[in-house]
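Notes from the 1:1 (GR / supervisor)

We went over the backlog. Supervisor wanted to see one worked example end to end before approving the batch request, so GR pasted a single chain during the call. The sequence is below; no edits were made to it. Supervisor asked that the structure be written out right there so they could see what the output format looks like.
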Amino acid sequence: MPITRRSLLKAGLTGAFGLALPVARLAGPISRMIEAGAVSSPDVARFEVPLPVPQAIEPSSREADTDYYTITQREARVEILPGYQTTIWGYEGSFPGPTIEARSGRKVVVQMRNELPVPTVTHLHGGVTPPESDGYPLDLTLPLGFDLGKLEPHVAHATRVRADRCIEGARTHVYPNQQRAAMLWYHDHRSDFTGPQVYKGLAGLYIIRDEIEDELELPSGEREVPLMIADRIFDEDGGLYYPSVDDSLLGQPGVLPNFADGVKGDVILVNGAPWPRLEVVGGLYRLRFLNASNARIYELALDPPPETGSSFVQIGSDGGLLERPLGHDRLRMSPAERFDVLVDFGAYQPGTEVTLRNLRGTGRTAEVMRFAVMRRASEDFSPPARLAPPEENAPRPEEAVRTRDFQFTGHLFGGVSTINLRPFDPDRIDARPKLGATEIWNLRADPEHPVHIHLAHFRVLSRDGGPPSPYDAGWKDTVLVPGGNVRVLLRFDGYRGRYVFHCHNLEHEDMMMMANFEVV
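Structure output shown during the call:
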């Protein structure tokens, strides 16, 4: 649909939403007024820091069918760049936060405590979760004694703070885990400020396992490696640089104009370490990739590639195992997507250095990490020919009871981003699917947006009338829409209630490229 003055007036994007960012808000240290691309982090050596692996947190207590956890969001000083101290906001004061290991069908209850100076929201990304525990962006957990009057009224969120939706100190989330084995992740989801709060470190892994996965005897232990990839900018003292309009994160949301298309850093972190190095044996590894960047899209490749076979054998996607392995020579990952792959380092001679490259990057961002093949494996795993069994009750396109169209458009007046030319309004419901119903959603983007849908996993049916891309296999909760049209098939199982869908370029999300749906 063409954008006209009439359609903008109808969408309510004139008036207050049409205002440019206040000039006074852009004042501050000269270092903050740098154009995108001119920001440069301190130079550090690459491929020297050992790859850290986030440790699994132990439950504080257990019952017959439930594991209980308490996690505290707090500020900490950590070493990310060698020789520098960086202040982060982290779950248990670490980045990434501790990994939660869960079993399909076994409930997890997490008490999330907030000891930060700002409100937070926690979303289990990829979780089939009741609405009260999903991390709706207005379900704020306030620091103890926090005065809501500190949140300066302004056009973007003045009508959004609801005292009756706020809880002081801690909020309890219940995750039933009635879903297949998969690697999910939990992260901050606060309305208007998801970008800076995730950037400061509020992200962690959540891994669900089940009997089907157990029976495959996939690489495990030290040969199952989660890889959370994220890019950041650091200032000359090693602090995280995020170009917020308001550094307090209590007033005007958004970023400086030159970063409106998303904050992309010049330091690539894997599990919180810059360009790390992992020593591997010459055998099969299970690498579980997550793109946890705010806005950067990666195209990963091995250098050198193996002489025979595919570099990556995909066994799983956002929503769990594929039915059959799928070979790739490269992997394209937009923000929030996950790829579960097997890599055979037995294809390399001991002593080989294998670099994981980013073919979409330039300069320092063209490299991600390095694997050093040390010796032959004493014992190895065999890649399975089949993975998850076929689903007898999987939704089919002919079962769809409704087709909906959603256009994702960014950078309108004042930097506002929209879905169907309307910015996020918590009081507006844009779709009311019925519980158990199957629908087709046509997702369109201008120009390029990773789209995440809460609650409902989906399959990609087509791209621009043609087949899905090689990266669309399996059950997804996030899909890159690089212009054009992507058709997805959803079934709304699980729970009734209100959820959101949005762009997972976090700067676009914060500038209101988000909408509600309610399962009825």
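Supervisor's comment: The chain is about 5% helix and 40% strand.
Batch request approved.
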